[in-house]
Design a protein that fits this description.
The chain is mainly α. 78% of the residues lie in helices and 0% in strands. The protein has one domain (2-30, 39-131). It contains 6 helices and no strands. The relative contact order is 0.14.
C-alpha cells in the first residue's frame, strides 16, 4: 500500500517535471515580452491571443506527456494495480488541466486535450499491465528445449 502511494507521488512529480521541461522549450521559442505582467489577466490574454497555434500544440503535448509519463512511472513503480495507479495520476493531471482551462483562455480546440488526459494515462497503465503479464509467463527450460531440438534432428 505504501509503495503504491509513493509510486503515485513520484509519478505526479515526474509527470510535472516532464511537463515543465517541454513547456520550457515552448517558452524559449515564444518568450514572454519584456514588461508584460503575467499577473494582469488582460495583458496575459493579449499575449496568448498573439501566439501561433504551434505554441498551443506544444503545450498540449506537454500536458499529455505529463499524464502519460507520470502514469507510466506510477504504474511501473507500484507493487500492484498498475492501471489504477496510472489513472490516479491521469485524474490529477486532468484536474490540473481543467483548472488551467478556467484560468487561461486559449483556443477552443484546446479543450480536446481534457478527455485525452485519461486516455494516455490508460495507455500507460495498459503498457505496464502487458509488460507484467508477459513477465509472468514461464520461460521454457533450456534442458527441455535442448532435448526437443536433438530429437527432431
Amino acid at each position: 500500500m505504501l509503495r503504491n502511494v509513493i509510486a503515485v507521488i513520484l509519478g505526479i512529480i515526474a509527470g510535472m517535471a516532464l511537463n515543465m521541461g517541454i513547456l520550457e522549450i515552448n517558452y524559449l521559442a515564444y518568450p514572454i515580452p519584456e514588461g508584460l505582467d503575467i499577473h494582469n489577466p488582460a495583458q496575459l490574454q493579449n499575449y496568448l491571443d498573439a501566439l501561433p497555434a504551434l505554441a498551443f500544440l506544444v503545450a498540449m503535448v506537454a500536458h499529455l506527456a505529463q499524464s502519460f509519463g507520470g502514469g507510466w512511472i506510477a504504474a511501473r513503480l507500484g507493487s500492484s494495480r498498475p492501471m489504477l495507479l496510472a489513472m490516479i495520476v491521469g485524474a490529477v493531471s486532468l484536474a490540473g488541466g481543467v483548472m488551467m482551462m478556467t484560468m487561461v483562455k486559449g483556443p477552443a480546440w484546446m479543450a480536446i486535450e481534457l478527455p485525452l488526459y485519461l486516455v494516455v494515462a490508460w495507455l500507460a497503465g495498459n503498457i505496464e499491465q502487458k509488460r507484467r503479464a508477459a513477465g509472468n509467463t514461464p520461460a521454457p527450460d533450456s534442458a527441455e528445449t535442448g532435448k526437443a531440438e536433438s530429437n527432431e534432428a
